[in-house]
Write a structure and sequence with these properties.
With about 80 residues, the chain is of the alpha+beta class. The chain has two helices and four strands; from the N terminus they run βαββαβ. The chain has a four-stranded antiparallel sheet. The termini are far apart. About 20% of the residues are buried.
Length: about 80
């Protein structure tokens, strides 16, 4: 099965900043997580996360994040390699 890769910006609300969301994501879904960049403050967390897996599994993982209250947006440019 072909694996897809998605790079996403995640914006955490204050209530989730202390939660192990990326850890949970990697255990709940058949995706490989790779944190590319992160900035965490007391009131917000912003993470650039790479997900690798089947397109269906990535879609399920994104929906789960959004249901938790995390804003998910695609990465427009390659921040690390540019």
């Amino acid at each position: 099965m072909k694996k897809d890769t998605e790079r996403l910006w995640l914006m955490y609300p204050r209530k989730l900043v202390q939660q192990p969301v990326v850890y949970q994501l990697g255990h709940k879904f058949k995706v490989v997580t790779n944190i590319r960049q992160a900035s965490v403050q007391d009131d917000i967390g912003i993470v650039c996360l790479e997900l690798q897996g089947s397109r269906a599994e990535i879609a399920k993982a994104i929906k789960w994040l959004e249901r938790r209250g995390i804003k998910v947006q695609p990465v427009e440019i390659n921040v690390i390699e540019s």
